[in-house]
Amino acid sequence: MSEHEEKRRAIASRLRLSREMAGLSQGQVAKALGWHRPTVSEIEAGRRRVSVEELATLTEMYGVNILWVVGEKDEESNLAADRVQLAARELSKLRDEDLERVLQLIQALRASGAVNE
């Protein structure tokens, strides 16, 4: 696989991860953008090129940093920051009792030393 193909697949993978963490289906994204669902599938499989405008629209919709998606920023630190934002978004969708369970789990992990402070 060429370097160009590897980069396209990495971008596709990050777009898929970002969409999933934003809680959106391929169909929802396609409908919002006036596309067919297979278009989103082809992008996420790395078989369709994405224009700069499309990339900007997708990253804004998913709430992620465009530089992280294209691999131009330090992946480790940006991935951690983006994952925290995505986790917060998912937590905000939980019912109060489920959120309380998650908080209890975090406290238990912290008490066991499994969480770095």
Task: Briefly characterize the structure.
With 117 residues, the chain is an all-alpha fold. The protein has helices at residues 3-21, 26-33, 37-44, 52-62, 66-69, 75-91, 96-112.
Task: Report on the architecture of this protein.
By secondary structure, the protein is mostly helical. It contains 7 helices and no strands.
Number of strands: 0
CATH superfamily: lambda repressor-like DNA-binding domains
The amount of helix comes to over 70%
Reported CATH architecture:
Orthogonal Bundle
The number of helical segments is 7
Radius of gyration: 17 Å
**At the first level of CATH, what is the class?**
Mainly Alpha
Return residue spans where pLDDT drops below 50 for at least 5 consecutive residues.
none
- SSE topology string: HHHHHHH
Structural class call reads: mainly alpha
Mean pLDDT: 86
Strand content: under 5%
CATH topology: 434 Repressor (Amino-terminal Domain)
**How many structural domains are formed by the residues?**
1
